[in-house]
Amino acid sequence: MHPCQREKAMANYSPQHFEPRAKAVNVKGVANRAVATVLTAGLIAQPLMSPLAAIAAPTADNGDATKGDSTIENVVAAGSQATAKTAAQLAEESAKQLKDAQAAYDAAQKKADAAGQSQKQAQQQKNQASQAVADNAAEQNEAEAAALQEKIDELKAAVDKAEQQQKKLGDLNDQLDQANKSVEDKTQALKDAKAKQDGAKKAFDDAKAKLKAMGMDEYEAAKKAVEDAQAKLDDANKAVATAQANLDQAKAAEASAQQEKKDTEAALTTAQAKKQETAAALAAATTARDNAQQKFNQAQAALDAAVSGTGVDLSALEAAKIAAAGELKTAQAELNAATDADATAQTNLQAAQAAVAAAQEKANAANAAVASAQSAYDAANKEYKDAASKRDAAKTAYEQAQQTEADKKAEYDRLVEIRQQKSNEFDQARAEVTDAHNAYDAANAEVEKLNQQIADLKSNMTVDQEVISQGMFGFMNYIIGGSQFTATQKKNAQDAVSMLTGAADKAEWYDKYVDQDMSRDTNPLSLEQMRNALTYLDTQNNLRKANGQSALSVSLRMTVAAALNTSYSSNIWGHSNCYFDNGENLAGGGGAYTGGETEDTLGWPYTGLYTQEKEAFDKYVAQYGDELGSHRYDSYYIYQNYNSIYHECGHYLNIIDSATEAIGIATGSGKNTDSEVTIFDYSADSTQADFTVPEFKKLLNDYIDSAYNAGGTQEQKEQLKQLQSKLADAQKNFGTAGTAYSNALDKQESARDAYTAADTNVNTAKGEYEKAKSGTAAAKTAYDAAKDALGGIDIESLKQNLDAAKAEAATAQAALDKANATLADSKTKAAEAAAHKAKARSARDAAKAKSDQANEAYDNATASVKDLAAKCDAAQADLANKQGTLDDAKKADDAAQAGVDKAQAADAHAATALSDAKQVVAAKTQAVSDAQAKAKAAEGELATANKAFERFAGAQKAVDDAKAAYDAAVAGVADAQKQLEAANEAVVDANFEIVKAKAELASDEALKADLEAVDHKASLAAGTTGNEKLVKLNAAYARYKAAVDAAAGLKAALSDADAKLSDANDAYAAALAELGDAKDALAAAQAEYDKYHPKAEPQAKPQVAQAAAKAPVAKKKATDGALAQTGDTSALAGEVFVIGGITLVAAGVTLGDRRRKQM
After folding, report:
1. Of 558, 665, 548, 662, which is closest to residue 609 (Cα–Cα)?
2. Which of 466, 497, 651, 502 is CA-nearest to residue 559?
3. In the prediction, which pLDDT does 102 show?
4. Is 398 exposed, middle or buried, given 0-12, 13-18 or 19+ CB atoms closer than 10 A?
5. Rounded CA separation 183/223 (Å)
6. What pLDDT was estimated at residue 862?
7. What is the pTM of this model?
8. Residue 667 belongs to what H/E stretch?
9. Which residues, including other chains, have CB under 8 Å from residue 26's CB and lie 6 or more apart?
10. Cα separation of 350 and 361, whole Å?
11. Strand 1134-1139 to strand 1114-1116: parallel, antiparallel, or no bridges (unpaired)?
12. How far is CA 157 from CA 49, 143, 790, 874, 1020, in A?
């Protein structure tokens, strides 16, 4: 079904609906269907009748009951006989009748209850069966809809998947095209890289040869001398740098030691000053404590003397007082002198410290000047070395430029000679073209002349135009109908006709490019072009034979394939990718083949398809070896593993492929174009090998000859044969002349290209020569500039500045050392003066204390006991206080002494470190000087070595540059090879993905076809599609079939339940009728009993409602829902009537028809 038709059919589909089943009601006659109806009818017809008479009156509708069996009739009969009996008998009988009526009513009630229960159960069973049928119908509907929806969903999914696969396949084909294009690009890139590598290799070899020609022993010796001198200079420069770094480090250490010495000296001075203070304080505290002790002793002695009455020597005390005053004066004078000396010493110390600071500042400035001069010298020295190196490089470049200029001049002269040679060859080639063109024109004229003669002859002969107009189609039908051909040949001819007419495998471009006018001479389907195609066959097999391969047979189907593809490719240049089996070659141009049949005599197109591509393939074999060469005759292997090579050499590989069995060749042009092409289509299927080449050539020639020679005299036929033989020779001669002309044109073109290239080379060489001359001039200018730049660097003056700065730094350092020595002496003298001052102060204080004591002793001697006691106590308290002060001063003095000891040790250590640092700086300075001397000597050696190596430098640089270029080219080839291999892998991967995608597409298309082939109605009926692959759809149809199969049983069960319900309804109605009769009889018996027992209590209490004897008739109609219907589960109910004090129920029953309509 066409997709559009399928969508339309699906749009018009709607699931089959099952209408609800109608309930048919058939009211059957039931005995005494409504007792109340009987009563009502009696009242209407005989309004004056008594109740009992009304009961006995017959109804208009007797139903199914028998009058003689009615309990009511029995009661009425009993009533009619009462007139003949006594009242007592009637009373007794009425009591008995009432009892019997009650028992009958009870039995009827029980029977009605049982029947009602049975009817209820039957109704439930009927409802369940009915629900099952309804559920089954719904299941059928749902299953059918689900099956159809499953088919729609699966078909839609299959269509979507197939479309996705189609798109994926298109994308993959695009990827394959891109991959193939990439392979072509990478192949060309590899060729270019190899060419570049070859050129770089040649340049490298030339450079090495040139260098070698200069004398390798001398070159190696000079080169080694330069390398050794350079290494020695490098080591010397490293030694200078190391020595300078060591000197800088030593100077930094010296500066640090200098600062440390300053810090320790300051700390020692502070500690010593502190010690002086604490010593003075200790001396003062000791003197004060001693004086206090002496004062206390004197006071105590005075007190003791006063208390004991012992007298004192006042003269002695006075003399002591005077002597102590003299000592105090002397001590004060000494203290004054010591104080002056201490002030002088402090002044000298401050002057020495200032002198050290000034000397340090000068030393620092001198050192900074040294560092600056050293930096300037180092920078200038580096600049000088760089300039010298540039001067040497510029000199080498200049010499190399001179050599290059000479080389370019020689090359230019050589190319001028070559250009003249190519000019001569070009003139010769033009002359050969003129000769070849004349020969070509002559051969062409001969062919045209013979063609005209044949045409004139044929015009006088009868031609079977119908055979000619049918072309290839007629030829194939000739084979189909010929008894001399095998069944396989006929079958292949029939397949070829189906392909030819578009009945099978019709390409989408068929109608646009295939011309059905097979009488047109250039139509590849015409007999004329079929005859032309024959001319290619022998050469094809000769080439295969030369390669050790079997001869190809002719395939009828491939012949048609080639003709159809020629129609396409003459319009759209390229392969159609249709019809052929395992290979196709396409060549521009058409007509008969005019070249030779051996490798050395080939003409177009074999020179392109075979000769050129064989040469290319042989180069690849030389590159890859047997890994490629062993598969020369397996084109598919090469296509898979060397895709780029296949794309370059595929025509050649198709011709000699060992797997090929048959071929079809066509030439000409399709519809709507004048362009002609020739196509070779190959098949590896042995069943397509219909004829050997000789068999096919004879068969086709005989067939064509029979058409053209259908009439005419024997002489005309013989003449035609001779002309055709001459024409064949002329065509071959024309082909040879054409090849010669083409070769001459090619030779002329090559000569022109060679001359043009030679002229271009001359112009290029001339430009390079001029460029080389400019380069030489520029190199000389650069060399001169480099020499001038080197001469402009004044390194000696900077060295003198550095030496002067170092001398000044040494002088400043000596002055600093002298100032430090003076400072140390000043510090010693200041300390001594401070100590002498402290000692003098102590002596003065002792003298003063002694004088004070003498004065106090004298005063005490003249004082009272009471005053002496007070003084004694005061002296004792003062002694204790002075002793505490002495203890504190002793501790402070001990701590100060410890500080002095520590500062002295640190100062001694700093002095040692400073001395060591100075010695290291001196040693490192000498090391730098020594290293610089060695470096300068190494520079001289390198300059000498470079001078000796200068003549080799240019050649060596050329070798180095050529080597670098060659290495880069080798890397480029490797990279290009990797990229090509990656591209080939991409092609293989793309082909593999395409194969997978085609397989998946075929599977999807097969599934789509399977789904489209499913007959929905037939599958519903069968419960399966019949295709085991459609698992889910089969399950959906099986579900529907199961529902349909279950429907019969469910309907049968429903029918049975319906019948049982009908029977139960009938039984229940009969029981109710009987209950109504019993109820009527009970009421009649009760009335009869009441008649004869007006005041007595009833023997049995009837189970009916009592009402007033004259109560009006009331009617209560039961609701519609209370009526029992088929399918209801409610109890049966009816109408209630109250008549004459008795309540009666009329039951209404509606029954269902057992014969229900089945859908």
Report:
1. 665
2. 497
3. 93
4. buried
5. 47
6. 66
7. 0.34
8. strand 662-668
9. 1151, 1152, 1153
10. 17
11. antiparallel
12. 88, 20, 87, 129, 21
Question: What gap in Å lies between CA 762 and CA 404, rounded to an integer?
Answer: 17
DSSP string computed for 704-737: HHHHHTSSS-HHHHHHHHHHHHHHHHHHHHHHHH
Instruction: Say how many C-beta atoms besides its own lie within 10 A of residue 748's C-beta.
Output: 20
Distance CA 617, CA 136 (A): 77
Beta strands 553-554 and 662-668, pairing class: parallel
What residues form DSSP beta bridges with 586? 679
Residue 1136 φ/ψ, nearest 5 degrees: -105, 130
Rounded CA gap, 52 and 74, in Å?
Answer: 12
Q: CB–CB of 653/646 below 8 Å?
A: yes
User: Which pLDDT does position 1075 carry in this prediction?
Assistant: 92
Neighbours of 694 (CB within 10 A): 12
Gap between the Cα atoms of 435 and 160, Å rounded: 68
Record the tokens describing residue 454, joined without a space. 């044949």
Q: Give the integer Cα–Cα distance in Å for 65 and 34.
A: 12
Greatest CA separation for the chain: 207
Give the per-residue pLDDT at 41: 30
pLDDT score, position 710: 64
In sequence order, the β-bridge partners of residue 1116 are 1136
Closest C-alpha among 739, 749, 728 to residue 611: 739
Amino acid sitting at position 955? A
Q: Parallel, antiparallel, or unpaired for β 1134-1139 and 1142-1147?
A: antiparallel
Note the pLDDT of residue 864.
56
Shortest CA distance to 204 belongs to which of 969, 936, 758? Answer: 969
Report the C-alpha gap between 211 and 220 in whole angstroms.
11
Helix or strand (DSSP H, E) at 381:
helix 314-459
What's the order of all strands across the beta sheet hosting 553-554? Answer: 553-554, 662-668, 677-683, 583-588
Residue position matching structure tokens 């640092």: 917
Element (H, E) at 1135: strand 1134-1139
* Per-residue tokens: 877: 């308290």
- Average pLDDT of each block of 10 consecutive residues along the chain (1159 residues)? 31 28 34 31 31 33 39 40 67 88 93 92 92 91 90 88 86 86 84 84 79 71 84 89 89 88 87 84 86 82 70 74 86 88 88 87 86 84 82 87 90 92 91 91 90 80 82 94 93 95 92 94 94 95 95 96 96 92 92 89 92 95 93 94 94 96 96 93 94 95 81 74 84 82 86 90 89 89 86 83 88 88 85 84 83 78 70 86 89 89 89 88 88 87 80 73 87 86 78 75 84 88 89 89 89 90 92 92 89 62 37 35 36 36 35 31
1152, 23 contact by CB (below 8 A): yes
pLDDT, one tens digit per residue, over 264-287 is 888 888 888 888 888 888 888 888
- 1023 dihedral zone (left: phi>0; alpha: psi -120 to 50; beta): left
Query: Residue 798, CB half-sphere, CA atoms under 13 Å: how many?
Result: 17
Report d(CA 6, CA 1011) in Å as an integer: 12
- Main-chain dihedrals φ then ψ at residue 1142, nearest 5 degrees: -115, 130
- Outline where DSSP puts E strands in 73-212: none
| Beta-strand pair 583-588/677-683 | antiparallel
Query: Both tokens of residue 330?
Result: 């002397």
The number of angstroms, rounded, from the C-alpha of 960 to the middle of its chain's C-alpha atoms is: 44
Query: Alpha helices, DSSP H only, in 580-634?
Result: 606, 613-624, 626-629
User: 3-class secondary structure for 905-958?
Assistant: HHHHHHHHHHHHHHHHHHHHHHHHHHHHHHHHHHHHHHHHHHHHHHHHHHHHHH
- What is the spatial distance between Cα 1098 and Cα 1104, in angstroms, rounded to a whole number? 13
Through-space distance between the first and last CA atoms of the chain, rounded to whole angstroms = 33
Cis peptide before 694 (omega within 30 of 0): no
The tokens for 110 are 């029980």
